[in-house]
Structure formats: C-alpha cells, structure tokens
C-alpha cells in the first residue's frame, strides 16, 4: 500500500488529503482542512503564508498521530498567478499579495502602455488580465522598487511551499504557464518581455516539469514534526491542471472539463496553444497540463458570487445552511433577471448583494430582494455564461463537445450541475469532488513509478470514485433564457 500526502490549497480553504494506492484503487482520506482567505491590511490584500504553512504542518502532525508514518512523498497544488519573493539569504520578503488586490488593476494599465494585448497574448497564450502575475510585478516595481531590488528568487505559490519543505528552488511548468511571463514558443521564461518592464529575469527560478522530485524534506522539518524524510515532488502546481488530470475522461471522448470552486475553469485539452484573434477577443487562455500539453480554457466566475453573498448575510445575522440554500433556489421563480458574472464589478466588491442589485438596476432589470432571488440569479447566470464559453470552445477547436466533466467542491451544489446541463444542453458527468487532490496524488504516484501514465491513472480514478450524471431538462425555457442573456451581455 503506497501512501502520499496531497496538499490542495484553494482561494477559500486548504486541505491535506492522504491517498493510499493498493495497486487497483485509490483511497482518499481527509486529514486536515482549514480556511484560507486573503487578509486585508494596510489597504492591501495578502495571503497569510505563515499561517498556511503552519496549518500544513499541523495536518502532517495529525496524519503521523493517526499512524501514517510510511508516507513516501508530498506535493502541493494551489490557485494560479500569485508568488513569493525570497532574499539572497533565502528568507521570505513579506507576505505574498493576493491577485484580488487593487494594485493589479494599476499594474495592467502600466503593462498596456508598453505592449498591446495582442502582442502580449501572442507571446504567452494567456489572456491579458489584471490578475496576471506580470501586472502584480509591474505594480510592485512602481510602488516598491526596493522590494524587487532585494529579491533574488521568485517562486510561484506551490513552489514557494515546496521550498519551505525542501529548501529547493524551482518553478513547476503548469503553474508557470499561468503567469503570462512564460513563452510557449521558447518553453521558458520570456526574458525579452521581462526586460521590457525592467523586471530582473535572473530572479525567476528555473521551470521544471510536473513530477520532478526535488528531494527530501528538510532536517529541521523532520525534527520539528518527529518524522522520517519524505520526498517533496514538484507535481502539477496549478489546481486546475490537477483537476483535469483526475477527471475520468475516456480516450477519444469529445469532452469539455470544468473545475468547479471559487472560480470555474471551463475548457478542453489541446496539443498546442490556440492563439488566434478569436481566442484573444473571447478571453481564452492556454495553460499547461500534467502531461505537457495545454488547457484551452476560460477563467469564469464560480461560487465566489455565492460565497461573498453569504458572507454579507452572515455579517447581517441571517446566515443560511446549504439545505436552506437548495430550498430557496427551488422555490424561487426562474429567469427573472441575469448578470454577466465575469465583469470586473464582481471581482471583489465590498458588498456582493448590493453590487448585484446595482447591476440589475443599471441594466433595466428588476432588482432582487430576497435570498432566493439572489441565489437563482447567480446560478442561472453562471450556467448561461458557461454555455456561451462552451459554444466558443467548439468554434475554436472545430469539435462538437458532447459531454461536460465537472469536478471539484462546487459540484456539491446540485443546482449548479443541473443548471449547467440545462443551459448547455449537454450531459454533465459530475465527480469526483476532491478532483484536485486526486490529480495531485496520481501525479506523485506516476513520479514514484507506481502508475504508468495519465491514461492508466484515469482508469484507476474511474474505478475508485463515483460520479453522478445530469441530463438536460426544460430545454425550450433555457433556450429562451439564453437568447435574453446573450442580448444582455
């Protein structure tokens, strides 16, 4: 029985999963889960990386106390684009900023003064966006030039954590492709682009392939946690790359994938980046996969809208349970109003319900007032936007996508799954839930030589976990709603 630790860190929570592989099936056990939200301080949003790492060590301690002292390796996957900076002595230069920080907007304005969106996209294959790593770096350079002067090494978030565990500095391929600083033609950091913005490319740690074994955990970690060394693996660092790897997509199946959580990543796997006028105009991006290919996808808003609405309601003393949420959606009249969930209005508003009301008012629609009206508006709008994305994926690839594989914590919202099937008029296969942790784990097992390749891994996933199928319903009503939605956006 082989055991690995999979750390899966999302933009709302983190978890440590223990995965056991008996040669036929994977067995997943949640060891530790903790909240993870940006911290607002001195008018900026930061990631509390020290607390995150402490929680990760707490998870390892729990696992060891449960008797799991024969774990062979660990790997980390996270959200994309964010990073930490290290000094020449290898120490962290402050808490990393969050991609939701306002400085990224100012950074994009500066970037676009020196390079057009088209040229930027042609170099990286990544959608020009304010959340891109280059925008944050540009903003830091303008506001805090001394910080970049002191920085010797830049490590993307999962690779920063790998460094804290192993002492080894390397940036993994899938997470590096999310930065817009990785040149897919050169298959390396775009030094010419970095020079264009006077960002020192010498600080960019080298890019390594998914599955690179960095080495054992540091002696100080082993002593602190009273553990034997385990191998630290630079697995697929981007949680969406892990999710795609673990979805039970059959070879030859004309399928789209959706990684569902705070964000929804909807796309298809392609052998080469799709870098065209249309893919740029429609906001698509090309990021790496675990097996060295590309994910042609669109970053779309996901359950962030509901998470932030519920946070406001909780502050107001009227929180709701998941069961109440389900019933409110069920009992609310459909198709009364829509929003475009991907506008910057909803990226990080102070009050999400008020922002939704303002959008509806500005677009001449009835304003939602009840929780059920807010929830149904969000879920219907999300599903309709996914159809918009799916149709453009088909145009970009020339393929008819017959099924959507959904994975991640967001699939626990059954309305999201059913509405997605209804809106797209496609069969939806939902599962597994912990798809990023599973992908993280199979990447480690491939690196350790326990699984041959990704095709075999997906067969193992299908044997190991259950899925739920959603068939399209009420197609005429959803078609009419989609036509209205298209007019709105």
Automatic annotation (TrEMBL):
Residues 257-447 form the Carbohydrate kinase FGGY C-terminal domain. GO terms for biological process: rhamnose catabolic process. Keywords: ATP-binding, Kinase, Nucleotide-binding, Rhamnose metabolism, Transferase. Signal peptide: none annotated. This is Rhamnulokinase. InterPro entries: ATPase_NBD, FGGY_C, FGGY_Carb_Kinase, FGGY_N, Rhamnulokinase. One of its GO terms (molecular function) is ATP binding. Belongs to the FGGY kinase family. It comes from Aquibacillus halophilus. Residues 6-244 form the Carbohydrate kinase FGGY N-terminal domain. Pfam families: FGGY_C, FGGY_N.
């Amino acid at each position: 029985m082989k055991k690995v630790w999979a750390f899966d860190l999302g933009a709302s929570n983190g978890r440590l999963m223990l995965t056991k592989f008996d040669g036929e099936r994977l067995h997943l056990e949640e060891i530790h889960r903790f909240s993870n939200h940006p911290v607002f301080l001195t008018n900026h949003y930061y990631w509390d990386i020290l607390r995150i790492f402490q929680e990760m060590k707490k998870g390892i301690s729990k696992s060891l106390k449960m008797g799991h002292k024969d774990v062979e390796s660990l790997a980390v996957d996270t959200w994309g684009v964010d990073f930490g900076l290290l000094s020449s002595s290898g120490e962290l230069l402050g808490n990393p900023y969050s991609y939701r920080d306002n400085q990224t907007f100012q950074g994009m304005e500066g970037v676009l003064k020196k390079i057009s969106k088209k040229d930027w996209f042609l170099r990286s294959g990544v959608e020009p966006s304010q959340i891109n790593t280059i925008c944050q770096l540009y903003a830091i350079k303008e506001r805090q030039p001394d910080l970049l002067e002191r920085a010797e090494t830049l490590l993307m978030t999962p690779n920063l954590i790998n460094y804290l565990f192993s002492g080894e500095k390397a940036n993994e391929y899938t997470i590096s492709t999310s930065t817009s600083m990785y040149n897919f033609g050169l298959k390396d950091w775009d030094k010419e682009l970095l020079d264009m913005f006077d960002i020192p490319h010498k600080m960019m740690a080298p890019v390594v392939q998914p599955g690179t074994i960095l080495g054992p955990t540091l002696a100080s970690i082993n002593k602190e946690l009273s553990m034997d060394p385990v191998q630290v693996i630079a697995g697929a660092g981007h949680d969406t790359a892990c999710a795609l790897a673990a979805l039970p997509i059959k070879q030859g199946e004309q399928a789209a994938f959706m990684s569902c959580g705070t964000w929804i990543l909807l796309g298809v796997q392609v052998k080469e980046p799709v870098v065209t006028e249309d893919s740029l105009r429609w906001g698509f991006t090309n990021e790496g996969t675990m097996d060295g290919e590309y994910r042609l996808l669109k970053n779309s808003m996901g359950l962030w809208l509901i998470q932030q609405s519920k946070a406001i309601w909780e502050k107001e003393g009227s929180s709701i349970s998941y069961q109440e949420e389900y019933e409110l959606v069920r009992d609310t009249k459909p198709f009364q109003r829509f929003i475009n969930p991907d506008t910057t209005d909803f990226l990080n508003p102070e009050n999400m319900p008020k922002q939704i009301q303002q959008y509806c008012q500005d677009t001449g629609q009835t304003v939602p007032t009840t929780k059920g009206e807010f929830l149904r508006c969000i879920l219907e709008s999300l599903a309709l936007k996914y159809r918009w994305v799916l149709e453009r994926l088909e145009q970009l690839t020339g393929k008819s996508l017959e099924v959507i594989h959904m994975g991640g914590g967001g699939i626990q919202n059954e309305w999201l799954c059913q509405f997605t099937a209804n809106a797209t008029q496609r069969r939806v296969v939902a599962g597994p839930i912990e798809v990023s942790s599973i992908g993280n784990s199979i990447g480690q097992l491939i690196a350790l030589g326990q699984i041959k390749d990704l095709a075999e891994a997906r067969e193992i996933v299908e044997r190991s976990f259950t899925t739920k199928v959603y068939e399209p319903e009420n197609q005429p009503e959803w078609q009419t709603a989609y036509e209205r939605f298209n007019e709105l956006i």
